[in-house]
Write a structure and sequence with these properties.
With 308 residues, the protein is of the alpha+beta class. The protein is built from 13 helices and eight strands. A hairpin with a 2-residue loop joins strand 5 and strand 6. Helix 11 crosses helix 13.
Length: 308
């Protein structure tokens, strides 16, 4: 299952707004470790991931107090949602967001992905994209867009740390919710919590999410599977979860995988059942002879191995 449809929509918005589209992210399990390294902040990779996450909301209308892109976002709601999509929990209010992470002395030292706060006290916040530009939800009557940094920020904060600082160490003082053991993996805290709750390896859950959606909580496959864990609507309904809500999707998938692991006493068979259904695994007495499922199981196993 891919995020091709979502990627096409992002590209369309970028073209409309005159923004150069980024390179597509690899879904090959062998590239997993490299992509995780990017999120740790080595070079500009971590910041680029933040910018890419932010660009998904270009064109969303400004709405005071808004936290739902379906209806509108205000400046801090936009920033909070951008980082939430990467599994990083930020405070709700701009003034509080302006205190997280590490201080950056000036705009000359700012990197893509850094937070730019304005006002004293802080009443506006944006995300730096480089070259004197930022992406923000400006004000009523406007929309999320890329614009020039129009005045000197009152605070610049780096949430994604530099290469010399671990993600966990950098974020913990700011009270951010980062899962131990999964480090910079998006939604690592959700995988850890659900894994502990249902007795499933958090890394297995992370590997499934990597292969299923590449950690895109709004991914929708051509077959209709939805969200971070790519649950079909009927499956999600049976689990009693909203597949587009990351916390609910991970909880439901962990519960389902726990049942499949118990039923088949085999990780490969449980993964095959997650992809093709338990009935198909039982019917064929093993991994079903479906091309998608035959490819899916080794992809998840490769992603799992890359997590160490």
């Amino acid at each position: 299952m891919t995020i091709t449809d979502m990627a096409a929509r992002i590209t369309q918005i970028q073209v409309q707004l005159g923004i150069k589209a980024g390179q597509p992210t690899s879904t090959d399990g062998s590239a997993f470790a490299g992509e995780l390294s990017a999120l740790t902040g080595t070079g500009t990779g971590g910041g680029d991931a933040v910018v890419a996450s932010a660009e998904k909301y270009l064109g969303v209308p400004y709405k005071f107090g808004g936290t739902d892109p379906a209806t509108g976002l205000d400046c801090s709601g936009f920033v909070q949602r951008t980082f939430s999509d990467l599994g990083i929990k930020l405070p709700r209010i701009a003034a509080d967001q302006a205190k997280v992470g590490q201080a950056v002395p000036s705009l000359a030292q700012a990197r893509p992905g850094d937070l730019l706060a304005f006002g004293q006290p802080v009443d506006h916040i944006a995300i730096y994209v480089g070259d004197g530009k930022m992406i923000a939800a400006p004000h009523t009557g406007d929309h999320v867009k890329i614009e020039s940094v129009y005045t000197t920020p009152t605070a610049i904060r780096r949430v994604i740390p530099s290469a010399s600082t671990s993600t966990v160490d950098a974020l913990r003082p700011a009270g951010l919710n980062v899962a131990s053991g999964l480090g910079p993996v998006p939604y690592g805290n959700l995988f850890t919590q659900a894994g502990a709750k249902y007795g499933v390896s958090p890394k297995l859950l992370a590997a499934v999410a990597k292969v299923e959606s590449n950690y895109n909580p709004r991914a929708v496959s051509p077959a209709g599977a939805q969200g971070l864990m790519q649950l079909m609507p009927g499956t999600a309904a049976g689990l009693g979860v909203d597949p587009l809500d990351p916390a609910q999707a991970v909880d439901g998938s962990a519960r389902m995988l726990a049942g499949l692991l118990k039923k088949f006493d085999s990780t490969p068979l449980a993964l095959a059942a997650y992809n093709a259904g338990a009935g198909a695994v039982q019917r064929y007495g093993g991994i079903p002879p479906y091309a998608e499922t035959q490819a899916y199981v080794p992809k998840v196993e490769a992603a799992l191995a890359a997590l160490g």
